[in-house]
Design a protein that fits this description.
The protein has about 250 residues and is mainly alpha-helical. About 70% of the residues lie in helices and about 0% in strands. It starts with a helix and ends with a helix.
Length: about 250
């Protein structure tokens, strides 16, 4: 793929190029990164679908996630079968992964567990672009930024996470990267958006967001937004872990 791309770029230098072709010639690493992302999405979607179709996926943790989304779509919001019994209970009795509610509209298109598997690969893989953006923000050369972004896609732990059934918290990988990039660019409204998306993947993620608030205070000297991030995230983390989930269970 790399040889083909650079061959085409070399050929383009010999012809009069449109603005689009000029952009292609001047952004080879971005094009290669997009190609890598597409390959990642195709391959790991294919593998995760095969696992499901051949009965390697289990109740933990695809069945209970899928049931929660399906129930939410049909009016039983955030409910599923008690893993320790047969009664219907709130998902909140075990985890605060409210992102499952956010994913419900995708079930209007395809009410199938593979919808969740595909979304998991699609979103998690897109973290590679934020790795690249962060590296470029830190003034790394394009080639080195590309290497870091590619290593993200090649990380065995990441690859394992996207084929081992479905977990909302897996998507937090990308959301946290996006939130940190927003902090670096000082676009705090985007930081809030991605921080909330990360936080609703699972209760303990709020502790990581609180640490980002510490970065904002100590490194960037943005005391108000940083202090609010620390206080609110820590409060949510405490309430979910020691109050809400215990009461729901």
């Amino acid at each position: 793929l790399s040889i083909l791309v650079f061959y085409l770029l070399n050929r383009m230098q010999k012809v009069k190029s449109s603005a689009f072709l000029i952009w292609i010639k001047t952004h080879p690493y971005e094009i290669l990164l997009v190609a890598g992302y597409v390959i990642f999405v195709y391959y790991f979607s294919f593998i995760s679908f095969l696992r499901f179709e051949n009965y390697y996926a289990g109740r933990f943790d695809l069945g209970n996630m899928e049931q929660t989304v399906w129930n939410t779509l049909h009016g039983h919001v955030f409910e599923f079968t008690n893993p320790n019994g047969t009664n219907i209970v709130s998902r909140l009795a075990f985890h605060a992964d409210f992102l499952l509610i956010v994913l419900t509209p995708f079930y209007w298109l395809w009410q199938d567990p593979r919808t969740l598997l595909f979304l998991q690969v699609l979103v998690t893989g897109s973290g590679t672009f934020f790795v690249y953006k962060i590296a470029r923000h830190l003034k790394l050369a394009q080639s080195l930024a590309f290497v870091f972004a590619l290593l993200y896609l090649l990380n065995p732990s990441l690859q394992r996470s996207v084929i081992y059934d479905f977990h909302a918290v897996t998507l937090a990988t990308t959301f946290l990267l996006a939130a940190f990039y927003a902090v670096l660019k000082k676009r705090f409204w985007l930081f809030v958006l991605f921080a909330v998306l990360a936080g609703i993947t699972k209760e303990q993620i709020w502790a990581i967001i609180a640490l980002m608030g510490g970065y904002i205070v100590i490194i960037q000297r943005k005391y108000l937004i940083g202090a609010l991030t620390i206080i609110l995230s820590s409060l949510i983390f405490y309430l979910l872990i020691w109050v809400v989930i215990p009461q729901a269970s």
